[in-house]
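Input (Esterase YqiA):
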Amino acid sequence: MPVLLYIHGFLSAPTSHKAQQVRAWLQRERPDIDFCCPLLTPFPQQVCNELDALVESLLPGPVYLMGSSMGGFWSTYLAEKYDLRAVLINPAVEPQSHMPDYVGIELKNFYTEDTYRLQPHHIDEMRAADIAVPKRLDNYWLMVQTGDETLDYRDAVAKYRGCKQLVEEGGDHSFRDFERWIPAAVEFLEAGKAE
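Output:
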């Protein structure tokens, strides 16, 4: 059975709004596709190890990626490594450049109440996982809204030049009204099976 792997953002969780929208839509409209959304820490090497192990346990069956914010960063890492299709929603671009702002301070996940403290070596781990220039351009559908208050959408538009792109005026970092794009996103992810 195909699996849609939804990768949540920084200090987010499987209970986030978009993750739950995707889960509910699949249960209602496409029960033939399993939904998977692991709870990830902000520690890059740990995330790499967990996602690699998860994807390798699911292959060679169809695996579809959908990632929001930092989840878009991790979806790109997996899409390049395993040749998988990915829908990226307001994805983080070069998040290691923002990580110094978070080093040494207590971070709290408001979904789970867990707390974390990043260290300088985590920046190096993030840099090592960064795909500066995606090569499998047909594997991506970039979705951004210009009103994103957290990330500059233009960074993602530039990084994923040559990929399928949806650039909506307005909106915000949560990608307002995302649920209306779920059917088309799933159709895009499935289209890779025939190639």
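The first strand starts at residue 3 and ends at 7.
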